[in-house]
Design brief:
With 113 residues, this protein is an alpha+beta fold. The chain is 23% helix and 22% strand. The protein has helices spanning 29-32, 71-92, and strands at 39-44, 49-57, 60-69. The N and C termini lie far apart (41 Å).
């Protein structure tokens, strides 16, 4: 999982006794800057989770990116987020849960402008 140091050398035994391997991941310039999202909607089917990250301003919002992944990977994402939030709170103090939005967020039919 990204953001986690395994401490294992490539080729050293990893989980299940299998040798670990190192994968180099390229970060394209178009992705490197990231996007800001202040809302997320989650849907799922038997085979996949769909995470829509949105930017809500005033009475309107736009999905800024969509991530589609497997249920098993969602478990790893949740674990990585929990571990990193604990580290963040250890360094910066407790984070309070943001209040629920006072409005319903959902998809609306696209309009041709």
């Amino acid at each position: 999982m990204a953001g986690k140091e395994s401490g294992a050398r490539p080729g050293a035994p990893g989980p299940g006794g299998r040798p670990t391997r190192q994968i180099k991941v390229r970060l394209p310039e178009t992705v490197g800057a990231g996007v800001y999202a202040n809302s997320m909607m989650v849907q799922h089917t038997r085979e996949e989770f769909i995470l829509d990250f949105a930017m809500i301003v005033g009475d309107a919002g736009t999905v800024v990116t969509r991530v589609v992944t497997s249920p098993g990977h969602v478990k790893r994402i949740v674990k990585a987020l929990e571990e990193n939030l604990a580290k963040y709170e250890g360094s910066h103090g407790r984070v309070d849960t943001a209040p629920e939005a006072p409005f319903q967020i959902g998809f609306q039919p696209a309009t041709d402008a």
